[in-house]
Amino acid sequence: MMEDLYQEIILDHYRRPQGRGLREPFEAEVHHVNPTCGDEIDLRVHVEERDGIPYVADVSYSGQGCSISQASASVMYESLAGRSLPEAMAALGRFQEMVQSKGEIPGDEETMGDAVAFAGVAKYPARVKCALLPWMAWKDAVVRATEGDGTDGGSNE
Amino acid sequence: MTLVTSATPLDARSIRQDFPILHREVRGGGRLVYLDSAATTQKPLAVLDAEREYYLTCNAAVHRGAHQLAEEATEAYEGSRATIAAFVGARPDDIVFTRNATESLNLMAYAFSNATAKAAQGSDLPAGAERFVLAPGDEIVVTEMEHHANLVPWQEVCAKTGAVLRWIPLTSEGRLDLAGLDALITERTKAVSFTHQSNLLGTVNPIEPISAAARRVGALVVLDACQSVPHMPMDVQSLGVDAVAWSGHKMLGPTGIGCLWARAEVLDSMPPFITGGSMIETVTMERSTYAEPPKRFEAGVPMVAQAVGLAAACDYLQALGMDRVAAHEAALTRYALDRLDRMPGVEVVGPTTSADRGSAISFTVDGVHPHDVGQVLDSRGVAVRVGHHCAWPGCRAMGVPATTRMSPYIYNDVDDIDAFCEALVGVQQVFGAR
Domain limits of chain A? Predict the structure, then answer.
């Protein structure tokens, strides 16, 4: 049962996070916290147009938290960086739908890659917020970046 | 028949017979090892039965109604107040029932902001309310280890009145650093509110030096006793403080009831908090006058069943003997601290000796976030609390973002501590921390 939650892929990302560290350039930076446990993330996005289509040129982050939130940030980086914005939004949608499904939606490894390892989190209601923390921070940052609104804090409450 | 004296240790195994929930299975068949009593305790059958009996036999709105049920319900409610008062050495009329300790502390804090606002308008205030009227530059003193419930309400008072919040800092061991007390509590200080026993660190604070400093300057002293009333013999009138707040659900009682004790002259001089029915003396369209305490602070139909349940909890604890409860917990605390001390990679956050320390033990595990510690413990049936424990500034002061906290009570024994420690080794295995 617990192995569903702490899959080896998740522990790997926790121990060796991908894309970690705040980088330049960026159009928006956000700070999100999970007020129930104190997990925090600072996240920056760099969006640039390629052939008229907006791309997530970079997502960079730093923060502290449990293995689920930290591994989720690493997987989020791999899932979103370098994708077109519509593709990245779709990936966010798939991830959110899966972890909020109470275990009903197993996720598709084909389209989701390592993110599918978070399917087990859906059975632990208290941990869904941990998994979503970096993804919601990214969504907030993208909205701010594309609306040209600079930097501000936020909360995923 | 065995003679039970104050020296006879508690028998947790037989106590557990009174708590059916402790016999349920968790996470696919494991035994429940409940070590989260600092958050809330489980309830014995006696408490559940008392509440059920009340609803079965005499449920009615108290203090009104001309029928027999209302009479009996009022008797049950006021009788419960007397039992609960006796449990902490108080007069019944000096006990106010609230929703929880958070509300009790807010009641005290609002006495200040309401009195200040009313004084500014020239509105009527009870005799003696001047001590609750704040001016910009007045000061309120708390400590860095407070639960948010005894911090945020005072921040709000300051924001509304221009008073300044100051606090007693912590030592690296998680005790109050009283070295600067005389510079901190001055003629400007109007209230000093602090916790008796830290829910984060387990520290039992010395009341006397703080209350003596407050008395010297005429400041009101409020004690958050949430983590002490359930765990040690308590005589509120001899503490040297003006008000004491605690919760029912942390001492075997139901949720939805808390208590505030205050010295009679303090309650008398306080303006009301929540207003409405039951707390008035006379009402006209223009204005109202208010009932004497404790009714002045109990607006609306009160939590009668919860009061009955809490009184049953007091009876239950009284029958065990609070000195035996304290001795039982001290023994478990010593045992747990000793075992944790011998575990590599495990660091206790808070006092590491059992002197002036309660049974709530916070700790960190090298390389493993508290949430993950709690999750793996849970998979082995061990229920603990993780996070900042609503004492975020205290965590920061101790240099940790969060902790895992285990907190045993009367129904736990060394077997539970052993199960907890074995599960903790499992945590380190899962995360390869060792």
Answer: 2-146
